[in-house]
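Sample pair:
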Amino acid sequence: MQADIESDTELAEKKYRTVVKLYRYFPHRDYALLKICEILDLKSDWQKLNHETSQAMRIFPMSSYIMRFRFMNITSSIMLNRFEPAMDQCLVIAKSTHDMQVLSEAIFYLAEINRKKTGNSRSYLKNLAELAKGFKNSKIYPSILFKLAEFHRYSGNTDMAYSAYLDITKYFPESPESEIAISMIDKLKIKKPKFVNYIPEQSYIDSTSKIDIEPEKNVQGENSGIYYAVSIGPVSKKWEASRIRKLLKNYPENETIETNFGFTIYVGRFSNTDSALALRIRLAEEFGINGTIVRISEKKQRSYIYRD
């Protein structure tokens, strides 16, 4: 397909749209629509992505790309605070797949939706416990343990939080979560924690609150070494991240970080959110890229990134 070799994302999107619109009997229209959705994901254009993935699921229910359409639809719904449709799609995936990796990702998204709706609640912990017990071979397992550690730390259970962080560094030392876990272990050591079982049993889950009425907050560390940047992505393909970086070659301080969910580009280094916001607006106006302002704390040559 000619659009596949187009370096300009705007032109590529137009060409893919031509295929979808005019070539009704072309056997790879679902692929063309997938590429449109990936470009919208690249731009963080959540409104259009939500619309296009909804269309894709309706028009191509038997497509080999259906799970990718569903997951992008979930992501866009969450970003638009449309939690019920996102939850519905997670449940559809959970009921229709036998792939353990796909199932773990669906439940992980379901957990995140629960957290956004109810905070560090009983239903959120139940999701995390299910993931921690049943999906140890999932590629997102370090993220699962990290979320569990954060839950325990937020709940004031130092021993369980420390133990989860420790296992991340022990079994997944190369994961992005390990870097943050090392920092958290250093902070918790002052309380002299001991290693315990941190994967909660049902009795422990039942003892937690149905709804967490306290808003979750990131604890501000030392003022030194803290700055703000604009986060773009994540995008699923490395070449997509490289394409964005080429677009932003005249912008200083941009780098790509790989996580379990893809590649994220961080642009800028500002001492305040106003300057970061000005860059975010400029990126939207110049390239149609909708970024997110993040706070980055640097300590001992490592960076810890917090999404506000």
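The two ends are 40 Å apart (CA to CA).
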